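Example A, followed by Example B.
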Amino acid sequence: MNNQQKNSPENRTSRVMTEWPDSLKAFFFAFWAFFGFYYGDVLYIAQQHSFFTTDLEALRPVWEKPYGSLWIIGRALLQAFHSPFWGGALLSGMLTLISWLFGYVFRLRGRFGYLKYIPAFVFIYVVVYHGFDIYYQAETGKLLGIPFCILLILACQAVFVRSFSRKKLSGLFTPPAYNRPLDEWKAMGFILILGAGAVGMNEWYRPYVRPTARMQRELERQDWKGMQTTASRSGLTYSTVAAYYAISRMEDKNDVPKVPIDMLPPTSRPIYLHNRDGKLENARNYFLMDYCIASEQYPIAYELGKADLKTEGPSPFLLKQMVRICLALHKKEEARSHLNVLRTLPFEKDFIETYAPETQE
């Protein structure tokens, strides 16, 4: 009797939960760290390029696009990356659920269990490959809208499969009792290899993306020394890194001349950047407004900002730039109008409290 109890399915499952590795749990925490820390600065800048407001009328142009409602949901979810720590947890959680449901729907268990992570890694590699293109002159709602849609479809499929199958859905963080420890170790090795591949791909093919995004965050905090440290660690052979390094020098040292954009020395390495039409873009357009503000070429920056508002629409990043430019040009009424739009956005309270007094007559 005692032997039967020891070998019962309940006891086998209990031993699985306490002794066997859990690849889903490893995947969740690994990519929480990836999106929350390693790639967090990039996704924060993506959030700053994504316009999501409580004013539904202001979102009408997005509603009217094909799949507009899905892109709005994606933009709403992307707001979590105002704090990359929590945004990383959200995105990693979504990809973990996708992997779990994909394995159930397509019966990927046992020695084939590691294959359930393929959709998540396809998403991760696409994000890393596109670099700046995930938010520059792009629909930012796709970034989290697409995984949300996939998750919703898989959830509906799982309900359908469960309705016509006697096979229960295993616990999210409990390996199925029929899995062998070797199967879970194989899945963890698969996660480790492809995760390292994603990091290697970014460091080899897009080494300028993370340093540039970090310097943009440091520029927002006016951390000039931090920008210079980031640039020195990354090298100045990429135009975006070199430009933000020049911006930090102009802002940090009063005796450093304000160098016009056309006088910046050329850099030797190309930047992977595309415009809204999918054509290769001159990399200097990525940092041109920030550079014109730092070099006090405010009229040029103002015209660039007005053009972007017309073609791309507002975003927290662009609205905050326009507030600073309008104040420098003594256009206080226009600066107040941009601040009023920012008041309808989440997470911009600190910026509003800083600049609102300067917009008063």
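Example B, a separate protein, is given below in the same form.
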Amino acid sequence: MKNWDIQYIKHLKAKCNILLKTASDKDKVNIKKTLWTLNEIEKYYYKKFNFSLPQKTNYYKILLDDLDSLKKFGYYMPIVRKANILGKKLNIKGETLARIKVSDAKLMEAADLFYQQFNGEFNLAYQMVQKGFEKRLRINKYRKVADGLTFSVYNTKLSFLEVQREQTIQDFLTINHEIAHSIVNYINKRSIWDVEKYPFIEVESLFFETLTNYQLLENEATSTEALYLAFDIIKDYLTETKLICLKANMYNDYSFKELIDKKKIKKYLKRKCKLENLKPKTILATKITDNFHYIVSYFTAIEIFLIYRQDPQKALESLIAITKASGKTEGEYLSYVNSLGINPGENFQQYLELLKRFDKKGEYLWQNTI
């Protein structure tokens, strides 16, 4: 297992503590936030894997969080609802990915080749980020589910990455996804901490992830598995849209006084979830905030990917513009993305048709096509 350099983390903390002694009051605020981030990373270092034990959920807190999210980011709901309508027309069956034998070194080599293909700022940022992999990249093996995590160190260009491997081609997507977060943090260190930009914080990572998947599709040796993976990803995001829309409808149907009556809500969900093939327990325990940004970012990333296939330079220019965008209000970020000629979800049908071309056996992984 490749791990972060704990001595390097402690060195950064010590440096922050020294700076605190002579810093101005204004600078102390930022330094303390940086130190807090490093403390969290140090705690995480001693965890064997990226997981936590199941915790009891507080329905009332989740309710308040959901209502706050819908109030703040409600104008993104048309994107989510459009995706939900799409989900009702598709019936994607899941496939189990085959295990592969690829060493961590080969995985890193593949990631390097992937990011070396780009010119301009993304490539330059990758070169700088790559130099820190020895100290700030952690790889775990043999998990049942591939996963990743990136810690951005507040007010710096530093980030710590973790990749949890499941020994399938998903690993190639996971590592490129996390590296993208690190690249974004290097280009715009404020991006991940910009609350108003929250719905778009996964755009770059999901774009590079989608492009990775597509290049695996084009490779004869991995094409079939990559097709399964592409549809699995779509299925996951469409399930999330279903969950959010169900909760949003519930909040519209009931007053706040009714919503805090958990028994009443359970009855409502028992009826609705049966129709949507979801579990009431899952709905009650899931915050809209945990899924919302993935949906908006994913459908934005797909639009940029479709542009990339026709005009790579234009796509990367739009992507870097989104990466550098800062200091806007919630609504202004969506307007800004639209001004770049990107309307999340608008051309998703094209992406589905593109995937169809790789289904050599003619055994489509979806039904009820649009």
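On Example B: The longest strand covers residues 147-152.
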